[in-house]
Amino acid sequence: MERLDKILASQGAKSRKDVKEIIKSGRIAVNGKTVRDCAAKISENDKVSLDGTVVDLKKHIYIMLNKPQGIVSASNSKSEKTVVELVPNSLFRSGLFPAGRLDKDTVGFVLITDDGDFAHRILSPKNHIIKTYEARLANALTEEQRMMLQNGITLSDGTTCKESKVRIIEDGSEPLVEIQICEGKYHQIKRMFAAVDNKVTFLKRTKMGDLELDETLKPGECREITSEELLIIQNGKNF
Ligand code: URA
What we know:
Elements (H helix, E strand, L loop, with lengths): L1 E2 H6 L6 H9 L3 E3 L2 E2 L6 E2 L5 E3 L2 E2 L7 E6 L29 E2 L8 E7 L2 H8 L7 E7 L5 H9 L13 E6 L5 E6 L6 H7 L5 E9 L2 E2 L9 E3 L2 H9 L4
Parallel strand pairs: 9-13
Antiparallel strand pairs: 1-4, 2-3, 2-5, 5-6, 7-9, 7-15, 8-9, 10-12, 10-13, 11-12, 13-14
């Protein structure tokens, strides 16, 4: 059971103060009866409506962002624009954070949520949820280097990486490769390619688990992830 004003304020763009005013003005009904008491206790099973329209009470929200370059993966920053600032008012609620960071110059799929348990489940290397990236490289990649990356490489500072899967999409002197990893170490992919004397010149996250970035989202655009899609993320466990 949760206070009516708290649960409504947690759902969207309205502040707790605005929500209180709306409740006091008699626009909210619980199970068909007008409720003007902000402290009224309600549960997930209660039917809450605003001006006669049922409000879909969600415990948590999950958002897919197509991250552009130049934006930091954080909830707030004094000096730089953050991924959370790109969430539109219609999806915004307090407590949002990116579940897994991309570097400032990396683009693509960032999952933004207010559900810490879910974020932990998909990020913990123990759970083996695969993250897929496309990387443009500065130099050709030999078969031997590809196998070294796949088998689990040791970085220059001694950090060990678990096995990965590397597939060449476009071969050549500046190849485009797909790489799949189930960890999220600092600058991991850039450092993995550096460990085989190569350099990542462009990096995009294309998938989390088995869920692909929705390519209809323009850079900087977001949309809500459905409950079916959340399962697709959690199913993406095997290379
Ligand atoms: N690996 C990197 O090096 N950078 C990212 O942004 C994500 C994975």
